[in-house]
Design goal:
Blueprint lengths: L11 H32 L17 H4 L64 E4 L2 E4 L12 H13 L4 H10 L6 H9 L3 H17 L2 E11 L2 E9 L4 E6 L4 H8 L6 E2 L2 H9 L4 H9 L4 E2 L2 H10 L11 H16 L7 E4 L9 E4 L1 H9 L6 H26 L3 H15 L6 H11 L2 H4 L1 H4 L8 H17 L5 H19 L4 H8 L10 H9 L3
Parallel strand pairs: 3-8, 8-9
Antiparallel strand pairs: 1-2, 3-4, 4-5, 6-7
Length: about 525
């Protein structure tokens, strides 16, 4: 490639195009050098260079476009005082066995040691019994003690299983090795039974998150339950995480999850707008809008209403029964104050496309990254487009920190230039056209600079659920499924709020000395303006 005589005279757009072309040529040269090395190794009779495929799930765009902190003059930061972070529980004085003759006592040298105390502690509660009027009154057990296993033991079991991701057999072996007389059935009962308070808090965490969130990211993954394939839906942002395992991943199911435990169906302005967006027939919308009944307590009442209006009997496309039900669910979401202005950022899975919707740039670029190119020209075109997308992605991240109207217009023009270009690589050109059709959702950040450009948070959150699935397979009972979703969500939420999950379990199980306020209150407090 011939360089222009006067580089200083080039415009920023021309300079950027020049850099992209040079990057493509560098990539071609690297491939040529690698091929020549393989050929030399073959001629010499040695093994060829191993073909290691790059990670197909990530091209590194997010990390590569992060702003690097300026180099520090002293790269090694001081560790800080360990003693200041610890609470001293015990002080022991160690005497010198044989001080030298004539030595004088000069005080003590402090040496702090952290120790963990694990041993069985069996308590025999002698509960008083009083007889009055033929009725025996027995003194209740202290708060936190429920059954034959104390709160510290139950806390340990829950933390090991859900946060430590161990299995029931290994946990059982560990407990018995520590001297605890316990059966597998009792371990399972600790993990799954008597957790109504935790389930309610996890539900309230989702409600608080949806009510206060400016944005959420969503994702789903496979989940086995009762020997059947299902799906776990993740919802969260920087303050909270929620999981819900169901048998379906449809939009109907996603909207049901967004109700956060409410079971009602509501026809309001949001529901009617949803029907119009989904091209529901006008006469069907009119029947629902003109009827005086707008609130339905449960699915049975809603289904009966659709049958009375004759909507259930209609056989047209789109399915009026489905669209009307989705709309009523969306109406319920809005009725309860969820996602008032919140943006849903997803990986372009169709079930998540409701309300204000944004798309993940990492998933969009991944389509270009994973595209198979079989000629040098196609590989060069792919490299050029990826370089341009990376540059635009970095510019969008910078825009989120300092948005301006002028910069918004420039980024929109740059998006159009990249995704309407013709590279000659037909498959790539079709992909670019498809991505250009999603312009409004990919550039949602230009309207809402506070939202993320990716769903990495959701993928990170859902990883613990995937690990649990790999370690233990599926769940057998509804209680086990609900307990898994609840405790994994609470552990993730605690981490985001800067709370120790161990301390949280202690506070909820009434372990002395552990106090943690309700997590929904902390989420709502963080959402308040400073």
């Amino acid at each position: 490639m011939a360089l222009p005589e006067n580089i200083d005279a080039l415009s920023p757009a021309e300079l950027r195009l020049l850099v992209v072309k040079l990057l493509g040529e560098v990539a071609d040269l690297r491939r040529t050098v690698a091929a020549q090395r393989d050929e030399i190794a073959r001629l010499k009779g040695g093994p060829p260079r191993p073909k290691i495929k790059p990670n197909s799930k990530s091209s590194g765009m997010e990390q590569a476009t992060d702003r690097k902190p300026p180099p520090s003059a002293n790269e090694r930061r001081p560790r800080g005082s360990t003693r200041a972070k610890l609470t001293i529980n015990e002080e022991r004085k160690i005497k010198l066995t044989a001080p030298p003759s004539g030595a004088r006592f000069k005080g003590y040298t402090s040496f702090v040691v952290q120790e963990l105390v694990l041993h069985p502690h069996v308590i025999d509660f002698r509960c008083e019994r009083w007889l009055a009027d033929g009725k025996v009154n027995t003194a209740p057990l202290p708060q936190g003690f429920d059954g034959h296993f104390g709160p510290q033991l139950r806390r340990f079991v829950l933390a090991q299983y859900h946060q430590g991701q161990t299995t029931v057999p290994r946990l059982l072996t560990l407990l018995r090795g520590l001297g605890i007389d316990i059966s597998k059935r009792e371990v399972v009962r600790i993990l799954t039974a008597g957790h109504d308070g935790f389930h309610e808090e996890a539900r309230d965490v989702l409600r608080a998150g949806l009510a206060s969130a400016a944005w959420i990211t969503v994702d789903d993954t496979g989940a086995r339950h009762q020997a059947n394939n299902g799906f776990c839906c993740q919802i969260g942002n920087a303050d909270f995480t929620a999981f819900a395992t169901t048998a379906s991943k449809s939009r109907l199911n996603f909207l049901s999850v967004l109700r956060a435990g409410h079971g009602d169906y509501v026809i309001n302005d949001a529901a009617l707008a949803y029907m119009r967006e989904r091209a529901l027939a006008g006469h069907v919308i009119a029947r629902l809008a003109e009827h005086p009944d707008r609130y339905f307590a449960d699915q049975a009442a809603w289904t009966a209403h659709l049958e009375n209006l004759g909507i259930a009997a209609l056989k047209v496309n789109p399915d009026p029964m489905l669209i009307a039900t989705e709309a009523a669910l969306w109406g319920s979401v809005k009725h309860h104050g969820f996602l008032r202005e919140g943006v849903i950022v997803s990986d372009d899975a169709g079930q998540f496309n409701v309300g204000q919707h944004g798309l993940c740039w990492v998933h969009a670029e991944r389509l270009v990254h994973k595209l198979d190119a079989f000629t040098e020209q196609n590989r060069a075109a792919q490299a050029n487009v990826r370089a341009a997308i990376w540059q635009l992605y970095g510019d969008l991240k910078s825009y989120g920190c300092a948005p301006t109207a002028q910069r918004k217009a420039e980024l929109e023009a740059e998006f159009d230039r990249i995704f309407t270009s013709k590279t000659g690589f037909i498959t790539l050109d079709r992909l670019l056209a498809r991505l250009h059709a999603n312009k409004a959702e990919l550039l949602k950040v230009l309207e809402r600079p506070e939202i993320p450009l990716h769903t990495n948070g959701s993928e990170n959150d859902i990883r613990c659920h995937v690990t649990r699935r790999k370690v233990s397979g599926g769940t057998r009972s509804d209680r086990g499924r609900d307990a898994r979703d609840t405790f994994l969500a609470l552990a993730k939420t605690c981490a985001k709020l800067g709370i120790s999950f161990w301390n949280y379990l202690g506070a909820r199980l009434n372990v002395p000395g552990a106090t943690i306020p309700p997590l929904p209150n902390l989420i709502l407090a963080r959402a308040l303006p400073p």
